[in-house]
TrEMBL record, chain A:
Residues 120-213 form the LUD domain. This is L-lactate utilization protein LutC.
TrEMBL record, chain B:
GO terms for biological process: lactate metabolic process. Pfam families: Fer4_8, LUD_dom. Residues 309-339 form the 4Fe-4S ferredoxin-type domain. Coiled coil: none annotated. The keyword Transport applies. Transmembrane segments: none annotated. InterPro entries: 4Fe4S_Fe-S-bd (IPR017896), 4Fe4S_Fe_S_CS (IPR017900), FTHF_cligase-like_sf (IPR024185), Helical_ferredxn (IPR009051), LUD_dom (IPR003741), LutB/LldF (IPR004452), NagB/RpiA_transferase-like (IPR037171). This is L-lactate dehydrogenase complex protein LldF. Signal peptide: none annotated. GO terms for molecular function: 4 iron, 4 sulfur cluster binding; metal ion binding. It comes from Rubricella aquisinus. Keywords: 4Fe-4S, Electron transport, Iron, Iron-sulfur, Metal-binding, Repeat, Transport.
Amino acid sequence: MSGRDEIMQKLTRTLDQGDGRAARQAAVRAHMAKPGGPVPSIAREEDAVGAFIERAIKADATVSRIASADDLPKALAEELRNRNLPAAIRHGADPMFAGLDWGGLETSVGIGRIEEPATLSRAEFGVAETGTCVLASGADNPVTLTFLGETHFVVLDAGDIHKGYEDMWAALRARGLTPRTVNMVTGPSRSADIGQQLQLGAHGPVALHVFVIG
Amino acid sequence: MTVQSTTPQFKQNTKDALKNANLQTALRDTRNGFVGKRAAAREKMGVDEFEGLRDAARDLKNHTLANLDVYLEMYEEQVRASGGHVHWAKTAEDAQRIVLDICRKADAKTVNKGKTMISEECGINDFLAENGIKPVETDLGEYIIQLRGEHPSHIIAPAVHVTVPEVRDEFRKAHTHLDADRNLDGLDTLLKEARGVLREKYFEAEVGITGANMLIAETGQSIIVTNEGNGDLSQSLPRVHIVMASLEKIVPTLEDSATILRVLARSATGQDMSVYTTFSSGPRRATDPDGPEEYHVVLLDNGRTDMIGTEFQDMLRCIRCGACINHCPVYQTVGGHAYGWVYPGPMGSVLTPSLIGVEEGGQLPNASTFCGRCESVCPMRIPLPKMMRHWREREFEKNLTPSAMRYGLKAWAFVAKRPWLYRVKTRAAIMALGLLGRRKGRFAALPLASGWTGGRDMPAPEGDTFMAQWKAGKRP
Ligand code: SF4
């Protein structure tokens, strides 16, 4: 007998001693029709954008607002300058980036590389509940850019910021997105594994900056 | 064979731990960090809402476990639909064989590991090494203990027992390609060095192995939650991604995962949310420029289906947050290695005998003061003390307890089975201790307990039992 059959038969035999299989299948159907638990008040904040910004900053990200995507190159150039980073950015094939005039910024398109001072991704959504950016992997925004940049820049439409995780998942389903990875990012990477002292910049980015459009 | 345990020598292990000055320093440094942070996170969210989420998380997992076969089938179908493979491992040996097969087919010389306790449970590192494949741990804590040839001493802070000078020594010994006279004084220089060394390794490995905090039945996704980002690099850069997960990690839907996530980080580190929560499904798509070309899930049973339908089923709700460990006075005194196997603290005391047998692991449930703090902080409301008592009784029935203890236990069982008497007795003892130690608030030495007070001061009881205080509303 295969491992699978052995495990499943044992499980079913034991579980059937409670409710029968049919009753259990009905219970599963009922749950799938109405999943999820209580939604806490932090996920019901009226001012989702304000709450998102406040909580992202609490998680050690930095945030700035720009009026439209057209302002991104200038704002990004300024951030790079302020951080003493080279005037260069690596990003994916997202149509938002393709349509921009990058001016003096040196841009390259592709996946993350071993040494990459600065990378840029467009987040699909934000979640106000915890100041979290939600990215969908693919050619538009390769997943390795999120982890291999020293400093990771994320751009996010204010209209895509949702109050809680439930709203965000509903929006993701509505957009028909089924990427290989959905990446929730809350602040820059960190570790307390040396001397129990929290330090920013473990394997992922040392810094995370979010541009909120609108 | 699962990873070898030293659990039968638990008593000797604890003696060694109490004499280990470095370990005691490390444990002292962390003692209050986790506890205070969890309490603050709970307050910040609002105590009522947090407690409500704990109820919901418990109910969700109970529902899932009662229908686990249905959800597992759903999950398997979804993984297949996204182009991934599910491998079922009845035992740790099965899991070893499956992982080795995949690695051989991928012609792997090096395997990157994100943090996975299931791989620890199955002894994957040693097994791969014996078969000529080099496992490299990438979680910083795991990396440090791999250099030291040790096992984790805590499920979320694996190197919590290692002091900074020890880390410095290990790095000097291991990173011989770097300048021998380099300055490694600051914590930041140590972190930078590890980051640089490991980053190269991500690009060398053919296979990446990660764990999973949850598996979603509805979508076939595996979830990893990390602060470092190592799990993500381990799964995105190598050509093959293997997820090692035990089969109770299933949750039905994405919305349900939110309920668990809301209690997980708050209970573990006191963060509202860990930095990276990644939902992965299948290998890279036709249009994807990065990500693994193969996606495998090894679903491990290793004794878990035997727990279903028994008094230990509740333990399968565990989300490995570590809160019970962080709040355990026994763990805080002896550290994780004394427990002798993969899972330390209260959750380990219940899980270890379930997974490796009461003959090997049966001493652990005795390492409890039954203070009840573990259950009071467990986000999944697992009745840990009750289950430790079950084990004690079973071990006793099997006559496995050292005879002196058996003698005491008989009396204890007599009283414990009569809760009112138990409370009266322990209360009387505690109040007496409280009066004795009231002046200093601590005992530097206690008769018959020098093994304990040699390593720490025994806090004087605050005048009443935990149960009585809890009832009076003095305890959370
Ligand atoms: S038993 Fe509870 S507190 Fe302990 S690790 Fe598991 S979920 Fe966390």
